[in-house]
Amino acid sequence: MRFGGFSLESFKFGVYIVAPLVAVYVFSVPEVFTGVITNRSYITYRPQVVIDDDDDEDEDEREDVDATEADLDEATARRIEAYVRVGQEEQRAQLQEMKKRLQADLAAEAADQAAEEDQSRA
After folding, report:
1. Distance, CA of 21 to CA of 15 (rounded, Å)
2. Which of 41, 52, 67, 94 has its CA 20 to 30 A from that of 86?
3. Residue 58, exposed/middle/buried by CB under 10 A (0-12, 13-18, 19+)?
4. 43: which DSSP letter?
5. What is the DSSP letter of 50?
6. How far is the C-alpha of 74 from the C-alpha of 87, rounded, in Å?
């Protein structure tokens, strides 16, 4: 049972080749690219707040913002330290496990060598 045959396969192959070429050509035009970016603004940024140095209220607000940022920085630093500590503990555990395996392998190798020497003497 044939569905499309050679002509359908040729059409699909042509679409697979032509579609990316057309997309590259269309989006290489700076006006089109900029238009798409401005039309589809997926990321929206908060408006920046301008702080006047003259007002006392603004100064207090800025101090609050600075204090909040400092608290966030400290919390971030603590979180990073915790992650590093956990990572170091995991690495230490892995190294200890590798050390045990190596010691077991060396002990087994020494036992095998001793057995071979005993067999060669006998």
Report:
1. 10
2. 67
3. middle
4. -
5. P
6. 20
